[in-house]
Amino acid sequence: MQGSEAEAVPVVSYAYRASLIGSAHRFALTEQGLSWHIGSRSGLWPYDEIDAIRLSFRPVSMQQHRFRADVTHTGGRRIAILSTSWQTAALMAPQDNGFREFIVELHARMAKAGSRAVLTSGLGRTAYATVLVFLAVLTVVMAGLLIRALVIGEFAGALFILGFAALFAWQVGGFVRRNRPQSYRLDQVPKALLP
After folding, report:
1. Helical axes 155-178 vs 125-151, angle rounded to 10°
2. Above 80 in pLDDT, residue 116?
3. Strand, helix or coil for residue 7
4. What does the radius of gyration of the chain's CA atoms come to, in whole angstroms?
5. Which UniProt keywords are given for this protein, alphabetically ordered (predicted)?
6. Whose CA, among 66, 102, 158, 175, lies 20 to 30 Å from 10?
7. For residues 84 and 92, what is the distance between their CA atoms, to the nearest angstrom?
8. pTM here?
9. What fold, for 3-122+182-190?
């Protein structure tokens, strides 16, 4: 066996369907770089030409456990890689293991290629600040309603407000916690943003 054959890097693939109508989005990590096929478009981006990656937690109504990686090329083009795939009109299936392995391996290959990509996670700082302001206003309003319900003796209303607040905190709390804006390194992919 020759040295180049012994050192051949295996191809790591990942695919998902972004919608029921469109074709699958297919990605492969090859020796040359990130190969992608989305509909009629395709490309091969060498690992050192990947300019930025943003990881985020993006739940939707059909799938509350969905992650997203936005990969940007030095030429300005961007592709999105999602951790879920449409199966039927009513079913969006998670692909946790495949997504996690693909994203971790992409970072490892970029590190090996000496990439200087900008790595960020969560929402943008402005969007995150807007979410925090909205939650602060909502908290004040809910506290005011709770106090009013208790003062006028509407204990059923107070229980409803407490239950709604607990449900809302459970649903939105994970989103806010996971999507805190931050930078990371190629060898420290944030676990909170991987399934």
Report:
1. 170
2. yes
3. coil
4. 21
5. Membrane, Transmembrane, Transmembrane helix
6. 66
7. 6
8. 0.80
9. PH-domain like (2.30.29)
Burial of 80 from C-beta contacts in 10 A (0-12 / 13-18 / 19+): middle
The lowest-confidence range among 35-44, 46-55, 63-72, 183-192 is 63-72
| Separation between Cα atoms, residue 23 and residue 33, nearest integer Å | 22
Distances (CA, A) of 28 to 11, 15, 41, 186: 6, 9, 14, 19
Reduced to 3 states, what is the DSSP secondary structure of residue 195?
Answer: coil
Q: How far apart are CA 55 and CA 45, in angstroms?
A: 18
Q: Is the pLDDT at 153 greater than 70, yes or no?
A: yes
**Per-residue pLDDT tens digits for 121-138:** 998 899 999 999 999 999
The number of residues in the chain equals: 195
Find where tokens 């908290």 sit: 139
Strand 41-45 relative to strand 34-38, pairing: antiparallel
Tell me how far apart the alpha carbons of residues 86 and 16 are, in angstroms, rounded to a whole number: 8
CA atoms of 176 and 180, how far apart (whole Å): 6
Domain ranges of the chain: 3-122+182-190, 125-174
Which range among 15-19, 91-95, 113-117, 165-169 shows the weakest confidence by mean pLDDT?
91-95
Alpha-carbon distance of 9 to 6, in angstroms, equals: 9
Using an 8 Å Cβ cutoff, are 38 and 92 in contact? no
